[in-house]
Write a structure and sequence with these properties.
Blueprint: E1 13-17, H1 19-26, E2 37-40, H2 54-57, E3 61-64, E4 67-70
Antiparallel strand pairs: 1-2, 3-4
Length: 88
């Protein structure tokens, strides 16, 4: 929001799988329709007020294979909200 990254919770991924496998593991079909689903190791409490410092946000990278890509920022300095829109 407003160029600030908020961290809602820590999520340790146990498995990336398709809809059917996720439904089987979780015991429900009440899932969002998507090609990929993640199953967490455990649930963590959610906090909606933790704003990551901008200097920390500037150090984050998307890593794919051997490439690391920086997040995009607005000319005014805040985080460009579109940079986190896609799944990487």
């Amino acid at each position: 929001m407003d160029g600030v990254l908020y961290v809602v919770c820590r999520l340790e991924v146990d498995k990336v799988c398709d809809f059917d496998e996720a439904a089987s593991i979780l015991g429900t079909t009440n899932l969002w329709e998507a090609e990929d689903h993640i199953v967490a190791v455990r649930a963590e409490p959610k906090h909606f007020d933790f704003a990551a410092p901008l200097e920390t946000t500037r150090q984050l990278r998307f890593v794919s294979g051997k490439k690391a890509k920086q997040l995009k920022f607005k000319p005014t300095g805040g985080l460009d909200q579109q940079t986190l829109r896609g799944v990487r």
